[in-house]
Write a structure and sequence with these properties.
Layout (H helix, E strand, L loop, with lengths): L35 E3 L11 E7 H11 L3 E7 L13 H5 L6 E4 L6 H8 L6 E4 H4 L5 H7 L7 H9 L13 H18 L4 H29 L3 E4 L5 H7 L2 E2 L3 H8 L6 H12 L5 E5 L5 H13 L3 E4 L10 H15 L5
Parallel strand pairs: 2-3, 2-4, 4-5, 6-7, 6-8, 8-9
Antiparallel strand pairs: 1-3
Helix pairs in contact: 1-7, 1-8, 7-8, 8-13, 11-12
The structure holds zinc ion.
Zinc ion (ZN) binds next to loops.
């Protein structure tokens, strides 16, 4: 079925210089995914250096910092020009997992291609599945349990689309989840390379302090978000909005359609535009990483109504290797939109 309005083609973002320690894979078929590798500093590592493979860049940059001198980290899907939701892996992507000692996945059916690749490996590597760490189940697992019940319309869509389903997979947008997953990664690194456990503990501490400005900004936003609402073109920002107490005023019909990657009915779009026009929405959260006529139409409606627009992205823009500065930039936009200053 064509998905015209909510087409998930990634927008062509500016291609900034790649970060230090990051080598774009050249030539091979994985070049489209922008696979990156950060190398260990074996001489500085007090234990065994580990080969770690991460499915998507949202976790890749975090794992690189946690592994420090003791990990070679390969991030398979590292370009923001590739949409993880629709991604079909190449043979090179699948081969990247072959020698991994530790694999870090998002799970929740977001990167099922990576989970599938890992399932074929013998011996099986240690896996940190973020969705499992935070206790979020995949839609499919739930469906199997309730196979005899008639699935709701939403669940049917989830099965068709391999998409968001009933679970919001954007786990890296939750400060709580990010910290839980980081702790799980640190624990597994220490078990796999025990002599380097102290190094991993130091890296984790450094990462926690780097995270602090992001946590501080979230805390500061709680007061300006109180009693305020947002509507979103996509569900990507939902966990952060929940963490700061911003109310989701996205019309339900639109939200359901968008999270199942189907086209909303004309009535849903009209309801969204009406909400923007009548002052019941304080901020429009707009995913600038995907393009489509409908999100653009909603953005225009927000601008006409004087509703501030905050741009967020699925993954960090190319060239932005820091999770914290990526997130902080978005949070400061939100703070400005809510009139909280910086
Ligand atoms: Zn998404």
């Amino acid at each position: 079925m064509p998905r015209l309005a909510l087409s998930r083609r990634p927008a062509l973002t500016a291609l900034a210089a790649t970060a230090t320690l990051t080598l774009a894979a050249c030539g091979g078929p994985s070049a489209g995914a922008g696979t990156t590798t950060s190398a260990a500093d074996a001489e500085s590592c007090p234990g065994e250096v580990l080969d770690v493979v991460v499915s998507v860049s949202q976790w890749g940059s975090i794992v690189e910092q946690l592994g420090g001198d003791c990990t070679n980290v390969t991030t398979v899907l590292a370009s923001s020009a590739v949409d993880p939701h629709d991604y079909e892996p190449t043979t090179a992507d699948i081969a990247a997992f072959t020698d991994a000692e530790l694999v870090v996945l998002n799970g929740a059916d977001y990167d099922h291609w990576a989970a599938d690749a890992v399932a074929t490996l013998d011996p099986a590597p240690t896996v940190v599945d973020a969705a499992e760490v935070v206790g979020i189940e995949e839609e499919h697992a739930e469906e199997e349990e309730h196979a005899e019940e008639e699935p709701s319309k939403g669940e049917e869509h989830a099965e068709e689309e391999h998409g968001h389903g009933g679970v919001n997979p954007h786990l890296w947008y939750s400060p709580e989840y990010v910290q839980a997953v980081a702790a799980a990664v640190t624990e597994q690194l220490g078990e796999l390379s025990p002599d380097a456990a102290d190094h991993f503990a130091e890296q984790a501490q450094a990462w926690e302090s780097d995270l602090q400005p992001y946590l501080d900004e979230l805390a500061a936003l709680q007061s300006s978000a109180a009693g305020r609402s947002y509507a979103a073109t996509e569900s990507v920002f939902q966990y952060t909005a929940e963490a700061i107490g911003l109310t989701d005023a996205t019309p339900e019909g639109y939200r359901d359609a968008a999270s199942n990657e189907t086209d909303p009915a004309p009535g849903d779009v009209a309801a969204f535009e009406a909400a923007l026009a009548d002052g019941s929405v304080d901020v429009l959260v707009y995913n600038s990483q995907t393009e489509g006529s409908l999100p653009e139409q909603l953005r225009a409606a927000a601008e006409t109504a004087g509703v501030p627009v905050v741009e967020v992205t699925e993954s960090a823009p190319d060239g932005e290797s820091s999770f914290v500065s990526w997130q902080l930039d978005q949070l400061q936009q939100l703070s400005n939109a809510l009139g909280g200053g910086q």
